[in-house]
Amino acid sequence: MRRVLLFSALVAACASNTSASDGGDTDAGLPDLVVTPVCDVGADAQSGLSGLVRFDHRVTTYAPESDAVIAAFGPPGTVDFAWSSGRDCCSLRTFDETTLYASPAGTIALLDGSTTLATLKQQGDQLFYQASTGDTPKLRWRSGDSLTAKVDGERIGSISGTVVAPSRIEGVTPEPPETGSVEASVGRNLAVTWTPGDGPMVSITLTSSNKTIACWVQDSGSFGISRVLLVQLGANRDALLTVSRMNQQVVPAGDAKVLVEALDSWSTTVHLAQ
Q1: CA-wise closest residue to 166 among 139, 130, 202
Q2: CA distance readout (Å), 244 to 109, 126, 200, 253
Q3: Rounded mean pLDDT of 211-223?
Q4: Quick count: other Cβ atoms within 10 Å of Cβ 195?
Q5: Comparing 149 with 181, which gets the higher pLDDT?
Q6: Amino acid 258: pLDDT
Q7: 47 φ, ψ to 5°?
Q8: Of 139, 253, 141, 236, which is closest to residue 183 (Cα–Cα)?
Q9: What's the rounded Cα separation, in Å, for the pair 261 and 56?
């Protein structure tokens, strides 16, 4: 059994369990961005979760639009995919080589309704499953489509989970300039806004090096990441900001659970200054 770091959403433990209140500072013009509570997602993340299948439609400011799927599995309770129940809170998480125990799960069939988009197989010592429109042109879907992952599991048994692709995430700010990246200060709350939608939850992540600020918020159209958390990422560095509308389904898998989720994401680079 091997351990592997997958991507910024796969993070291990909360770095802090203290309140992230920043003393009631309301940055000019941002009266609603006062406090970012720190959420304890440990109970959620470790309650028997043994795998994830993620459908992600992504628009970025630095690469072509694409649809992608990534999946990984492990023994029950060892896989932390930072899933949450949609509370308006954030956590700072540090990930390392102990993040995930990789374990083969056999074949994964990906469907849009009754149409097969792709079939994923674990190859050799590959530690996780992945595919995108770049290598699999048929791997495309639209908002409102029913996306299904059927896992013919060698370790977790055969399971099937279906989620509805969420509506597009639009109107996201901060929007980068024509050249360069978004500039932000670790000394001020970072305002993130988007066009409100009908999603049950929006995920906001800010990742730099091996640290991620991960927030789970209602689809209200605005949220503020506290400077208390920003300063812990560190100044004078770039970070990847991702805003995702999501739908999720938890599928029983024997004595464990597999999370199947569909995201519509928007990403840009933020330069964190003092």
Answers
A1: 202
A2: 24, 27, 11, 26
A3: 90
A4: 12
A5: 149
A6: 86
A7: -85, 60
A8: 236
A9: 8
